[in-house]
Write the structure tokens for this entry.
Amino acid sequence: MINNENGRRGEKLVRQTGVLGNVLSTGLTGGVCVAIGLFAGLKVDAYFQVAPYGVMGGILFGLAAAGVQTYKQLKESMGAFRNERDRAENKTSQM
């Protein structure tokens, strides 16, 4: 019986860790989006010689992309949390 309990805890931990990993990657994704926008803005500034406007536009574009990605990732993670909660409720109601 003890081994079965530990096995269930292990399965739950693995599922939660996977979902938590999705949530924690949101910050990294946002940073990468802004960095790519900044890099593109620097290249636009250098090519067209429109000094601060390319960087500002690139940062704004990166922030918009980060916002969209954050929304998508959080929506996916909340769905996974909801599924886990429903699974746990179904197990307790069957007992």
